[in-house]
Amino acid sequence: MLRLDGLSKTYTTGDAALSDVSLTVPKGQIMGLIGPSGAGKSTLIRCINRLVEPTAGKVLLGDVDLVTLGKGELRRQRRRVGMIFQEYALVERLTVMENVLSGRLGYVPFWRSFLRRYSGADIQRAYQLLDRVGLMDKADNRADALSGGQRQRVGIARALAQDPELLLVDEPTASLDPKTSRQIMRLLTEICSERNLPAIVNIHDVPLAQQFMQRIVGLRSGRVVFDGPPSELTETALTTIYGEEDWNAMRQGDEEQAEAEADAKTRLEALAR
Amino acid sequence: MTEITHYSQVWAHRTPRARLFMWLGWVALVALFVFCWHLMTENTIWVFVLDAPRQAADIGGRTMPPEWGYLPELMKPLWDTINIATLGTIGGVIMAVPVAFIAARNTTPSATILRPIALFIIVASRSINSLIWALLLVAMIGPGLLAGIVAIALRSIGFVGKLLYEAIEETDARQIEAIEATGARGAQVLSYGIVPQIMPAFWGITVFRWDINIRESTILGLVGAGGIGLKLNASLNTLAWSQVTVILLLILGTVIVSEWVSARMRHALI
Q: N or C: which end of chain B has fewer CB within 10 A?
């Protein structure tokens, strides 16, 4: 279980990216984090594993407050938190297998990782994960030879190789096409329910969030302005999160798009006749 | 289309001020050229210059035909030259790698003390020509191959160190962040996050420097640091022009081969 208590982050430039965020994510819950660009979604998940140092507040993973830890202890605790990135963030020039095994780095001594001499159990587990994400035959390919969807699957396998108690997922589908996005989201939610793994997912795409998340938290200017199940995410709630004008503009844009598409369709039909 | 008449038909690429400065710039350039021409011709003895074609033809005549029988004798010094370049490159790279990691902003252990020291080492090594390094080293450790190897190595630190630390600074921070997020130790972040990203640059730089070092090591013999330059010096001093031709052709051939090898290796590595 993860509990955030009064988490705040003010950057040195004076921008308050997060103000007093308190949240509890119970075991097995997949929580979607939505909000406009610059609302602090990315800062929030990076404050949890301290890729960004929070200014104030607590991050309680189980009984451990991650915020107060020293360098060595933080490293040990980071093993408990798996992270999946927007642009995959795989080490491009390493093989798929090396990327998955890099999830074990926090557990193995340096010389073993340097010589790529991982234990049999680690290797077996890596193969099992690759099989789970459907990339068994790509184990020895270089990461930069894969497609976007395949890379994100490797990213998922790497995070799971850590044996995490929590998954942080930063815009997992932002660089993927709609179909692959849905496949990746489905895989993520399946894996989380298989392992009863809680996850925080930053997501731009509201329909995608409504389709796959059990709970949605809306962030605006670093504050939580919505917290509830997807069914409660009404137009009024979206207005609170994204602001009146933006939301209407988005909808209007959608209508224009739909009209243009319908128009193009009738023209094409006329041409075909 | 009468309504557009109130728009101007005049448009200039530069403002009058910029045009004035451009014009002044050209005037200054011409003035500088005239001044330099004056400086150059002042101390020139025109009789010698007029005589130059004849002198060139004379030396040219003496260099022909090349004394090909001298070639076997050059093989050992050529081998020495290649060894100076290769061992010097290896030594330079070994010393440059830690310097590069200390000099790179994103990997330096101490930005206030160690980084300036590393940058100073790089600048010092780069600012002194390998011929001057060789002169100093011949005086210190005596003439011979060792002085040449050390000279090449010291000169290479700066070149390799600078290019490598720039490559380290240009690494993709997201890949490094992802490795940090797994709970990896500092050394593991280095070997998984950074090293794979700089490997192509590392081999490219090393092979490129080796190629440069082949060229530089051919002249180190002029100051007594071994290799084919020693032979060149001897032949020049005895005015054995036909031998000089053979040596210069041999150096040319070696450089062409080394350039070809380095191009092929870089192509294969990257």
A: N
The reply to whether A69 and A173 lie within a common domain is yes
**Domain co-membership, A1 together with A31:** yes
What is the number of domains present in chain A? 3
**Mean pLDDT score, A40-46:** 89
Please give the ipTM for the structure prediction.
0.83
**Class (C level, CATH) for B73-269:** mainly alpha
- Percent of chain A scored above 70 by pLDDT? 93
Lowest mean pLDDT among A234-243, A254-263, B76-85, B208-217: A254-263
Question: Which residue, among B175, B189, B191, would best test binding to A if mutated, counting the most A CBs under 10 Å from its CB?
Answer: B175
| Residue numbers of the domain that contains A250 | 243-273
Contacts of A42 in chain B (CB under 8 A): none
Q: Which residues of A touch B178 (CB under 8 A)?
A: 83, 85, 89-91, 158
**Residue A224: what residue type?**
V
DSSP state of A66: G
Is there a single domain that holds both residue A122 and residue A19?
no
- The answer to whether residues A128 and A173 belong to one domain is no
Alpha-carbon distance of B164 to B104, in angstroms, equals: 9
In chain B, domain spans: 16-62, 73-269
pTM reported for the whole predicted model: 0.77
- What would the DSSP string read from start to end of A77-130? HHTTEEEE-TT----TTSBHHHHHHGGGTTTS-HHHHHTT---HHHHHHHHHHH
CB contacts under 8 A, B 150-189 vs A, are 172, 174-175, 177-185, 187-188
Closest residue in B to A94 (Cα–Cα): B196
**Is there a cis peptide before residue B196, judged by omega within 30 degrees of 0?**
no
